[in-house]
């Protein structure tokens, strides 16, 4: 399940809701699409911070931030 949560720390209710929907049997990907120039590097601290938070909540999820010129292009990149 792909969930466009932004940084999952700021939307714990959405992460919990998606965990309830999957009943812990599916994998969830929390995506964060940042609208910016694609040549800008994604900060690894942000990814590590999000993954640590998900581990503390015992969510079966990955956190993937991405930089894209539009939300649509970012969502397509996350799906791929």
TrEMBL record:
GO cellular component terms, semicolon-separated: membrane
TM ranges are none
Whose protein is this, by species? Rotaria socialis
Classification via InterPro entries: SLC12_C (IPR018491), SLC12A_fam (IPR004842)
- Chief location of this protein within or outside the cell: membrane
- Domain SLC12A transporter C-terminal span(s) in chain numbering: 11-80
Give the PANTHER family listed for this entry.
Answer: SODIUM CHLORIDE COTRANSPORTER 69, ISOFORM E (PTHR11827:SF103), SOLUTE CARRIER FAMILY 12, CATION COTRANSPORTERS (PTHR11827)
Per UniProt, subcellular location reads as: Membrane
- Key words of the record: Membrane, Transmembrane, Transmembrane helix
What is the recorded membrane topology of this protein? Multi-pass membrane protein
| GO biological process per UniProt | cell volume homeostasis; chloride ion homeostasis; potassium ion homeostasis; potassium ion import across plasma membrane; sodium ion homeostasis
Q: Which Gene Ontology terms cover its molecular function?
A: sodium:potassium:chloride symporter activity
- Protein name (record): SLC12A transporter C-terminal domain-containing protein
Which Pfam families would you find in this protein's record? SLC12
